[in-house]
Amino acid sequence: MALHSAPRLGVVVPSGNAAAEPEIGGLVSPAFNVHTARFPVLPGKDLRGRLATYNDVLPDVLASFGGLRLDAAVVSCTGSHYLLTPDGDRALCAELSEQVGAPVRSAALAILDTARAVGAEQLVLVSPYEPWLTELSHAYWESAGLTVDRVVKIRAGARFSPYDVTTEELVAQVREAELPEDAALLFTGTGMFTFDALAELGRDNGRTLLTSNLASAWWARDALGLPAEGPDAHPLLRRLAERTGTGAAAPTASTAPAAPGADRGAEAGAAAVAVP
To answer: 38 — phi, psi (to 5°)?
Structure first.
């Protein structure tokens, strides 16, 4: 596929998040070109204050893409949207979609879409957050109709810091939890690197493995009609579709407004599916 004709996925990330761009970019390539915008640096605010401000400034951050016409956009910060109810999150994303002229989804809603698409109604929440934010995350999923059977708290050394969790720490702490072989695990947090850990934790078992970035990529492909089990799809997306016995698209994406470049995206998407 020619680079100039590939659909454009906008990704909005916190300033210090180093994981979202490479993970989402790797998951959607070669079907999309990924373009990013960052939330502002907010000195003097604690974590909760920064997350609340992110929701307030999100329209301006999306506007910073300027004349770059997007085909879809993901807000790659789950923590800020856990401050909202799922209904409030949907309402905000609907307003942003109208503003952008293309479907906009939060990573939290993308997780919800993907979990339902693959039939994961009961989850083990794997969270690197501070306890108060893990509690907000738990409440968000329960209010959305999912059941959180268990919470596995992940530490970076002795503290909670998603950006600093190593693969070794993540794998070791999940294994120590002795989870069922058929559990559905949700690794929340777009800033925690997960690819290498998923390869270890998904070996020789039937677990469904969901992450914020994996769900964002699933949703983005669905928004342009590209199935997760397509021949050009990343192995983690294909594994998710195969292990759950479904190639079904997330049910809510079809309700999003059409992107200004929908015809261009559809043509490019068809070409991407044809790539062996």
So the answer is: -115, 145
> Tens of pLDDT along 18-55?
999 999 999 999 999 999 999 999 999 999 999 999 99
- For the record, the structure tokens of 239 come out as 């594994």
Distance CA 82, CA 159 (A): 21
First-last CA distance in the chain: 12
Question: Do 222 and 233 contact (CB within 8 A), yes or no?
Answer: no
What sign for the dihedral angle of Cα 43, 45, 48, 52? Answer: negative
Distance from C-alpha of 67 to C-alpha of 74, rounded to nearest angstrom: 18
| C-alpha 130, offset from chain centre | 19
Q: What's the farthest any 2 CA atoms get from each other in the chain?
A: 50
Q: Global pTM?
A: 0.86
Dist CA 91 CA 41 (whole Å): 26
Per-residue pLDDT at 4: 76
Rounded Cα–Cα distance for residues 126 and 128 (Å): 7
